Amino acid sequence: MSAKSGPGEFARLARAHGPRALAAGALLAVFFGNAGFRSLVGNWRELHRLHGEIADLERDERDLDARLKALRSGDSGVERAARRDLGYIKKGEIEYRFPPPGRAE
After folding, report:
1. Considering its fold, how many domains does the chain have in total?
2. Is residue 63 part of a domain?
3. Using alpha carbons only, what angle is made at residue 84 by residues 80 and 87, rounded to the nearest 5 degrees?
4. What does each C-alpha distance from 26 to 3, 12, 15, 32, 34 come to in angstroms?
5. Whether the model pTM is above 0.85
6. Which one, of 83, 81, 58, lies nearest residue 69 by Cα?
7. How far apart are CA 65 and CA 68, in angstroms?
8. Cβ atoms < 10 Å from Cβ of 104
9. Residue 46: exposed, middle, or buried by beta-carbon count in 10 A (0-12, 13-18, 19+)?
10. Domain containing residue 60
11. 75 vs 20, 44, 79, 92, 98, CA distance in Å?
């Protein structure tokens, strides 16, 4: 220990920095010690998560609107969707199915 340490040095430090330390402790207790601040932080995080979810949903809506517009523009969009999604073929056509590449049988 140094020669300055002791009860007198502690009292001097307490007089010099005590009010600041008490104010800082009180502010920390007010901000972090109550449920209101924790709730505020939780709500802020939830808000940012919801903004991201809204952006994803808006992007999905634009994609679906584009698909709907393509389907409404004529029979070719409906035909393409029926062939791709449902495996439909026209009368007289022959469907050929190939295994996916890289799969040896």
Report:
1. 1
2. yes
3. 110
4. 33, 21, 17, 10, 12
5. no
6. 81
7. 5
8. 4
9. exposed
10. 15-86
11. 77, 48, 6, 19, 27
| Token duo for residue 52 | 């991201």
pLDDT tens profile 36-92: 778 888 999 999 999 999 999 999 999 999 988 887 887 777 788 888 888 888 888
28/92 Cα distance (integer angstroms): 79
The DSSP code for 33 is: S
Buried b (16+ CB within 10 A) or exposed e, 49-87: eeeeeeeeeeeeeeeeeeeeeeeeeeeeeeeeeeeeeee
Backbone torsions φ then ψ of 99, nearest 5 degrees: -65, 155
Domain contains 42: yes
- The encoded tokens of residue 51 equal 């903004």
Between CA 60 and CA 64, with CA 63 as vertex, the angle to 5 degrees is 85
Do the domain assignments include residue 93?
no
